[in-house]
């Protein structure tokens, strides 16, 4: 089975709140289950001089998975990042209401996030991606692989995410009503 490379996008700083400490576990679990999947993880927003970056790179090397993860430094233009990914993965353990999820929805990208980790789950729900039980890495891998196999589901949930973004966050009348009451 040869499918076009599937790119899982992650964005943010490499720290505990953003789930950087579980990245190697997520990638390792995914490829242990699905070794032949044509998948790459891309983490945007990395400080490559940080000790966290060095630690994560070492863990990935020990798992023989260095080539499966690309780290990109922060930059102003995020268009290329969002256009190049297939799905957005929010590994955050706590994040009040992550704007990156809304940015991804603006590019028709569904999101996968953890329950109990902040406000992303309120936006994602079941229709704009998937909400995984907190730190359930096994379920996360299975859901990611499901999207890899079913690109139509990816497309449908991406369209829903975009429509939801427009309805909840870009409707001027709704926003005016919320702040005027």
Q: Please give the largest β-sheet.
A: 6 strands, parallel
If you average the pLDDT, what whole number results? 92
- By helix and strand content, what is the structural category? alpha/beta
Strand ordering within the main sheet: 3-2-1-4-5-6
| Beta fraction | 5-15%
Low-confidence parts: none
Order of helices and strands: EHEHEHEHEHEHHH
Question: What does the model show?
Answer:
- The protein has 181 residues and is of the alpha/beta class.
- The chain contains eight helices and six strands; from the N terminus they run βαβαβαβαβαβααα.
- It has a six-stranded parallel sheet, with helices on both faces.
- The longest helix has 19 residues.
- The N and C termini lie far apart (55 Å).
Task: Using brief descriptors, characterize the structure shown.
181 residues; alpha/beta; six-stranded parallel sheet; 6 strands; 15% strand; globular
